[in-house]
C-alpha cells in the first residue's frame, strides 16, 4: 500500500524524511563492466562495437551496417500512420516554437572607464543522442532531445539506438527524420557512449552526449564526462500533485498513475487538505490499476513508493513540495498562481485542473527531460542552454590597462604570483 | 624544452594530436579513500570532521571551533593593508557589475491557441563554497565564486577552507567578508565536501557545491554529484596566445608564464605566423624564468607542456584554436575582432595587445572560473546561471486541452502508455 502521512501527526517529520531519503533504484554495480567496455571500444573501434552488439543485442553487424540507411529511415516514415505522423508533427512544431524563445542573447558593452566586456554564445559543434531500445524506445524522447540541439544551432547530431535482434522502433526513426537527424547507429549500451566519446573508424566523436538510458548507459556517461559533456543522469519519473477537495478523484488518480506506469521505481505523491478526497483518490487509483496494460508496473510503483500526504491546509504544501523538489508538479487547485508564487523547487509545473502532466510529455511545447531525484533543487530541465556555451570577452586599451593594472598587480602580489604581476607591469613600463 | 610545431610539416597532424591528447595530470587514484571518508562523515558527523581534520590538517577542533568566529573574520579584515583592501574592493565591484547582467529573465506567454507557457528562474537555496588551503588559497577565488551566487540570490553561502596546523589566509577571510559570507568552516578535503552534501550536527547540508580543490576534493565532488549539484571539476590552467610578429616578445612571454607559474601541469601555447618572433618569445621566456619566485614550477610547466606552433598565416589559427578549445585565449593581433569572429571554442577571450589574461583573473569583471582540458567545446565559465534553476510552466483551460489532447493521446497510444492517455481522455469524457 502507498504511504499515508498526516502532517499534524507526531511522527510526520521522521516519516517524511524517510520518504525523501528512500532509495528507489536498485544500485546495480556495473562500473567495472562499463570500464572494460569503454576500454575495448577505445582500443578496437568498430570491431569492438560489432562484437559487443553481437554479444549484448544478438545482432550481427559489419562496419557498413552500423549506420541505419537513408532508405530504412524513409521506409519507417512512410510506414507511419497519418494520425501518428500528424501528432508527431504537432509536437515537433510546438516544442520548436517554445525552445526558440530560449536562445540566449550575446551581450557586449563598454563600461564607464572604457573597458569592453561581453559574453558570446555559440553552439556545441556536435552532439550524440542516445535513445534506449526495447519498450522505452520513445519517439517523443527523440523530439525532446533533438529539437533543442537543432534550435541551438548544433551542426551534427548523431543518434544511437540499440536494435535488439535487429528490431528498431520505426517511430523513433520517423521522429529522427522529422528533426533532420539522419546519422543513426544501431548500437546501444556503454559501447555506444564510448563510441560517441572517443570515436571509431565509422563514428566521429562528439562534444556532448545527451539522452536517457539504463544503468550501463548512465555509468558510461559518468565515466566519459570531462572528455565530453553530458546532460543529467536521469532517474525514474516522479509526480507530485497538490490537490484541493474540488477535483474529480478519477482525474487525479489518472495523473498519479501516468507516472507510476513508467517504472516500478517511479514515484507518485499527492498532497491534499481533504481527508475524504484522499480516500476517494486512493480508491480511484485501485480501480484504475486493474484497467492498465502496464498495471503491474504501476501497482508496484504505487504500493512501494506512492504517498498521500494530508495537510490541515494547502498553506502547508509549498514547504513540503520544495523539500520533495518534484520533477513534475501539478497544482490542481482553484488558484494555482498564488500557490505557484510560493513554490521554488520543481522541474516543471502544471497549473490548474485542466493541465494534466501528460500534455508536457508530448505536445505542450516545454521539454519533458526534467530533473529527478530531488535535483530540481539545483538543476533545470533540458533546454537550448544545454547545447550552447559562452565565451567571456575582455578588451582593454592602454588607458584602461593603466586604470586597472595596479589593482591586478596588487592582488597578484598578495597571491604570490610574480608572472601574473609581470604581464601587467611589463606593459605599463613599471 | 617546449614543443615546437610547424603546421606545414608532414608530421604536424600527429604531433598536434599528441599535444591535444597528452595527459598533464598524474591520476592519483584516491577514489577508495574518498569513499571511506564520505561514509565516515555521513555516519559520524562532526566527530568525523574533528578526527579527520586532526589527522590530515594537524589541527585539533571541537564542534564549537569548527566554524570561524565573527571576531576572527573582523580581525582578518582589520589586518588587511589598505591597498590590498582597495584592490579587492575594486575587483568586487567590477565582478558584481558584470555578473548582474547575467541574470536570466523569466518568460511567460500565451500562444495562438491560448496555451500559457513559460520559464521561471529561481535561485539555488544554499551553496557550499570550497576554498583550497595552503599556497593556492586565493582571495580572488572567493570573489569569483561567491559574487555570482550572491547576485543570483542564493540566501545561504557556506564556505570551507582547510587550516593546516591552524593557519588560515586572512585575505580569504577578508574577501569572504567583502562578499557577505560569514558562515565559514575550517575544514577541507573530501570531509568538507561530505559535510556540505550530507550535513553534520553543526553544518547544514547545501544544495550545490562549487570551488576548486585537490584530487580528493575533485573525487569527492564527483561522488556526491546527484545528491547535490556541483560546478565543473577544474583542471590545471591553460593559455593560448595567438600572436602576430608585431608584439613585444617580452609581453607575450610574460603572458605565457602567467599560466605556467600556477602548476607544473599548466599549459601555455602560442600560435604565430612569424618564425623570428617565435624564437624571440622562446628566448624571452627563458630570460624571465630566471626571475620568478615560482620559476621552478613555471619551468616544469613550460618545458613539459608548453608549445609554440608556427603557421604560414594566422588564417590557420582559428581551426587549431578551436581544437585546443583553450581556457584562456589571447588575441595579440592588429585586428582581434575579425579573428574572434572566426573562433568558437574558448572559455574567455582577451582582445588586443593591451589585454593580458591576468586582468581577467582579478579586476576585469568577468569570471576566472573557466572550462579547462578542452571542455570549452561543451561548457562555459562560472556565471549567475550556475546558481539558478528554471521551472517550466504549462497552463491549459478546457478548450486548449480539447485542442491538444487528441495528439497527446495518440502519442501515448503508440508508446504503449495507457495511463498517460487516460489522464487526458478522462478529462475530455472520451
Automatic annotation (TrEMBL), chains A, B:
<keyword id="KW-0479">Metal-binding</keyword>
<feature type="binding site">
    <location>
        <position position="420"/>
    </location>
    <ligand>
        <name>substrate</name>
    </ligand>
</feature>
<feature type="binding site">
    <location>
        <position position="328"/>
    </location>
    <ligand>
        <name>substrate</name>
    </ligand>
</feature>
<dbReference type="GO" id="GO:0051287">
    <property type="term" value="F:NAD binding"/>
</dbReference>
<comment type="similarity">
    <text>Belongs to the histidinol dehydrogenase family.</text>
</comment>
<keyword id="KW-0028">Amino-acid biosynthesis</keyword>
<dbReference type="GO" id="GO:0004399">
    <property type="term" value="F:histidinol dehydrogenase activity"/>
</dbReference>
<feature type="binding site">
    <location>
        <position position="214"/>
    </location>
    <ligand>
        <name>NAD(+)</name>
    </ligand>
</feature>
<feature type="binding site">
    <location>
        <position position="262"/>
    </location>
    <ligand>
        <name>substrate</name>
    </ligand>
</feature>
<feature type="binding site">
    <location>
        <position position="191"/>
    </location>
    <ligand>
        <name>NAD(+)</name>
    </ligand>
</feature>
<feature type="binding site">
    <location>
        <position position="237"/>
    </location>
    <ligand>
        <name>substrate</name>
    </ligand>
</feature>
<dbReference type="GO" id="GO:0000105">
    <property type="term" value="P:L-histidine biosynthetic process"/>
</dbReference>
<dbReference type="InterPro" id="IPR001692">
    <property type="entry name" value="Histidinol_DH_CS"/>
</dbReference>
<feature type="binding site">
    <location>
        <position position="361"/>
    </location>
    <ligand>
        <name>substrate</name>
    </ligand>
</feature>
<dbReference type="Pfam" id="PF00815">
    <property type="entry name" value="Histidinol_dh"/>
</dbReference>
<keyword id="KW-0368">Histidine biosynthesis</keyword>
<feature type="binding site">
    <location>
        <position position="415"/>
    </location>
    <ligand>
        <name>substrate</name>
    </ligand>
</feature>
<feature type="binding site">
    <location>
        <position position="259"/>
    </location>
    <ligand>
        <name>Zn(2+)</name>
    </ligand>
</feature>
<dbReference type="InterPro" id="IPR022695">
    <property type="entry name" value="Histidinol_DH_monofunct"/>
</dbReference>
<keyword id="KW-0862">Zinc</keyword>
<keyword id="KW-0560">Oxidoreductase</keyword>
<comment type="function">
    <text>Catalyzes the sequential NAD-dependent oxidations of L-histidinol to L-histidinaldehyde and then to L-histidine.</text>
</comment>
<feature type="active site" description="Proton acceptor">
    <location>
        <position position="327"/>
    </location>
</feature>
<feature type="binding site">
    <location>
        <position position="420"/>
    </location>
    <ligand>
        <name>Zn(2+)</name>
    </ligand>
</feature>
<feature type="binding site">
    <location>
        <position position="130"/>
    </location>
    <ligand>
        <name>NAD(+)</name>
    </ligand>
</feature>
<dbReference type="InterPro" id="IPR012131">
    <property type="entry name" value="Hstdl_DH"/>
</dbReference>
<feature type="binding site">
    <location>
        <position position="259"/>
    </location>
    <ligand>
        <name>substrate</name>
    </ligand>
</feature>
<dbReference type="GO" id="GO:0008270">
    <property type="term" value="F:zinc ion binding"/>
</dbReference>
<dbReference type="GO" id="GO:0005829">
    <property type="term" value="C:cytosol"/>
</dbReference>
<protein>
    <recommendedName>
        <fullName>Histidinol dehydrogenase</fullName>
        <ecNumber>1.1.1.23</ecNumber>
    </recommendedName>
</protein>
<feature type="binding site">
    <location>
        <position position="262"/>
    </location>
    <ligand>
        <name>Zn(2+)</name>
    </ligand>
</feature>
<dbReference type="InterPro" id="IPR016161">
    <property type="entry name" value="Ald_DH/histidinol_DH"/>
</dbReference>
<feature type="binding site">
    <location>
        <position position="361"/>
    </location>
    <ligand>
        <name>Zn(2+)</name>
    </ligand>
</feature>
<comment type="pathway">
    <text>Amino-acid biosynthesis; L-histidine biosynthesis; L-histidine from 5-phospho-alpha-D-ribose 1-diphosphate: step 9/9.</text>
</comment>
<feature type="active site" description="Proton acceptor">
    <location>
        <position position="328"/>
    </location>
</feature>
<keyword id="KW-0520">NAD</keyword>
